[in-house]
Amino acid sequence: MMPRFGVLGPVIAWDEAGVPLDLKGPRHRAVLARLLVARGRVVPVNLIVEDLWIDPPTGAKGAVQTFVSALRRALEPQRTARSTARLLVTEGPGYALRADPDSVDAWRFEQAVAQSATAAPRQALDSLAESLRWWRGPAYAEFAEEPWARAERARLEELRLSAVERLAQARLDLGLAADAVPDLDAHVADHPWREEAWRLLALALYRSGRQGDSLAALRRARELLAEELGIDPSAELSALETDILRRADHLGAETAGRVWEQAAAAYDRTVAAGSKTRLESTVGLLRSLAISGGLEAARRQRLGTITAAEQLDDPELTARVIGNYDVPGIWTRSDDPEQSAQVVAAAERTLARLPTEAPETTRARLLVAIALESRGTRSPRGQQAARAAEEIARRIDDPALLASALSGKFMHTFHRAGLAAQRDAIGQELIAVSARHGLATFEILGHLVRMQARGGLGDFDGADVHAAAVEILAERHESPLVTVFTTWYRAMRAAATGASDADAEAGYRQAAKLLAGSGMPGLEHGILPLALLCLRVSRGRPSIFAADTDFGPYEPWARPHLLLADNSPDAAAAALRRIPDPPPDLLLEALWCLAARAAITLGDRKMMIRARTELSTAATEIAGSGSGLLTVGPVSEILGELTAVLDEQPDG
Predict the structure, then answer these.
(1) Rounded distance between C-alpha atoms, residue 375 and residue 421, angstroms
(2) DSSP category for residue 22
(3) Rounded distance, CA 411 to CA 423, Å?
């Protein structure tokens, strides 16, 4: 395991258990700090000598070599004396520290601040609050006077101040104005020249019901700027003061919350509990909740709403309650298979009881629900329901229904490998229909589908276009879960296009952090270990993982590789024979490729033939890349290896 490094405070290194490493004396630490400042670039020995001593002594170069040797022993204690260093390396005229991007607190902090710029407010708040806790003092604290550290210290300090202000903005966006005030008060006291900090403080005070304090803060800012710097406040601060005096409507970001509370209270007074109207309204609320990031909460309530509707013995009402929850899905494994089966059963019961005069749209939306909730299963019913819903939508020329039906159709384009082009066509139509008729959630889905499909076809430039487009739409329409998929896509793209092992793995690990609390267990469970396994297998690296690594539903396909890495070929061969056919979903090709790679290594002819047959229809695709999450390399390469080995082996 690679050690972790801390520079947000005194320079320190920890082992994988979090125990501080003995970095010896101050010059040892200075060498380490100098290499960390270089961010992986080579620092010539001559430059290190100049940086460590004002008047270098005789033998300074030898001393640097001694410092480096001691650091290597501390940082790579398992390395034998004659083996090549992998972390603190000698290269050309000097040294470089090849640290993983995720192993240095300053680098992680920089990435967290950058991602917060496009994250949803809650996600930004959590990420920034956590990353600001990594600061233990001024960056590179013991090297404050060193010229070589000055620019990096200043850059990191500016980044920290921006993070404090972004955290305050996230709190304001979430209606937590009072929570933002204490930190902002301290922030402006320490950094009185930052006008953005004064703006945020004044706004937080105003939204906390403290108009007088808000105006006093702005007057204090004006006095400080005039007395100390001889300048007037910016036009933005001056306009804010005027707006606060006028109590301008646009300043009350919490107004939306108050409007909601008032509307909800009026609704409770006028609409009877348990009424049909309330049930249908609840479905609309749950749909909005799911799309805006509360997927798990919406899913928990949905089944209860359906059950309540069935108890009223009104099939058309129940059909609307089931069908109007038209939340598009991009992942093809159910987050709650048991609940999905219950929704399908309720939809089938309701479909059978619908009167013949029921609107066709009502029937079609039930069919879409069946299609969506049947995703990832081998039952032909889901595909049949999707086709039937699409036929109705096209016949009655209903764009919203067509978009919904196409989302169901997409979920069932995995019955064989090699259907990325078909999914791309579905995404293209989804975008066209949705953009023309203002169906934002389905337009977002269309771009995500095309991002995945173009990636699977190896057209990363095309996929990039859709990733960028969907992020703009997601920000405009407050769909925070989109960032999860675009971040994973970019990690996969980097792995597929030659990023170093360390950078590729770091990209996957960073993407996995976005899954925590996203409400998508069907996506989250086991996906990071699987992505790392696919990366290592595709690059011919040993599949070595910690014993407690949880591969979730992908364990059968991982097991042979883990046993091979453990030098247990007989057990690996037995595990390979037990592998089932992969489920019909976005990872179909990737799992077949894992089986194929293990079969080649173990000489399992039967499995090689099966894998070649199943993968033959995907020869032009990149295995796994169509998921937008991970990659195992071009299918054509694996097919070529299978054919070569099978041709060499005699039958039987």
Answers:
(1) 19
(2) -
(3) 9
Of 174, 177, 153, 156, give the one whose Cα is nearest residue 112.
156
Residue 572 located in a structural domain: yes
Q: What does the alpha-carbon distance between residue 644 and residue 361 come to, in Å, rounded to a whole number?
A: 53
Pairing relationship of beta strands 622-623 and 633-634 according to DSSP bridges: antiparallel
Question: Locate tokens 């039937």: which residue?
Answer: 388
394 shares its domain with 278: yes
Closest-CA residue to 358 (of 317, 322, 399, 386): 317
The CA distances from residue 592 to 33, 417, 424, 445, 606, in Å, are 46, 9, 22, 26, 13
Asked, for residue 248, whether it belongs to a domain, the answer is yes
Quote the pLDDT of residue 261.
47
Do 333 and 344 share a domain, yes or no?
yes
Q: How far apart are CA 354 and CA 322, in angstroms?
A: 13
* Prediction pTM value: 0.65
- List, for the chain, all residue ranges whose pLDDT scores fall below the cut of 50: 254-259, 261
Determine the straight-line distance between the first and last CA of the chain, rounded to whole angstroms. 44
Distance between CA atoms of residues 149 and 139, nearest Å: 9
Q: What is the model's pLDDT at position 650?
A: 67
**Residue 173 backbone zone (phi > 0: left; psi -120 to 50: alpha; other: beta):** alpha
Strand arrangement of the beta sheet that strand 88-91 belongs to: 43-44, 94-97, 88-91
- pLDDT score for 115: 86
- Residue closest to 185 by CA, chosen among 169, 170, 168: 168
Q: Is 65 exposed, middle or buried (0-12, 13-18, 19+ CB in 10 A)?
A: middle
Tell me the C-alpha distance between 349 and 309, whole Å. 12
Percentages helix, strand, coil for the chain (3-state, rounded to 5) are: 65, 5, 30
Number of CB atoms found within 10 A of residue 609's CB: 14
Which of 98, 131, 146 is the last residue in one of the domains? 146
Structure tokens at 537: 């297998």
In a domain, 336, yes or no: yes
Final residue of a domain: which of 454, 476, 496?
496
Cβ burial 11-37 (10 Å sphere, 16+ → b, else e) = bbbeeeeeeebebbeebbbbbbbbbbb
State the CATH number of the domain containing residue 376.
Answer: 1.25.40.10
With tokens 């309720």, the residue in question is: 346
What is the Cα–Cα distance from 352 to 334, expressed in whole angstroms? Answer: 24
Number of domains forming the structure of the chain: 4
